[in-house]
Design goal:
Elements: H1 4-30, H2 36-56, H3 65-89, E1 93-94, E2 103-104
Length: 112
């Protein structure tokens, strides 16, 4: 079992890492990277989420039921993201002149 000072030192290291990663996120946002800025921000967010989950939620030490629930939740979140991405990428274009409810197949339309 770790002593209390070890826990405090770990929490301080994680806190400092989170501050640095937040600064990296802000810095990446200022760069002109186009769509790659989103990828960079998501990678940093994943690392920050892993730090919080593993250290502050103590998932690194957990076994069994709690870890299974956490991993199942992450899997469901991934499924929801994939379904949302599939929906967004397969939509047609909106035509406000005909009413915003009208969708056409984007492949059959000339480029705007």
């Amino acid at each position: 079992m770790a002593s209390g000072s070890d826990n405090v030192a770990t929490y301080i290291r994680v806190y400092l890492a989170l501050l640095v990663l937040t600064a990296v996120t802000v810095w990446v946002g200022t760069l002109n990277l186009g769509n790659m800025a989103i990828v960079g921000a998501l990678v940093v967010a994943l690392v920050k989420g892993w730090l919080v989950a593993s250290e502050f939620m103590h998932l690194r030490q957990e076994r069994g039921y709690v870890l299974t629930l956490f991993m199942g939740s992450l899997a469901m979140l991934a499924v929801l993201f994939l379904l949302t991405a599939a929906d967004v990428t397969t939509r047609g274009k909106l035509h406000p002149e005909e009413g915003n409810h009208v969708l056409r197949d984007a492949r059959a339309l000339p480029a705007d």
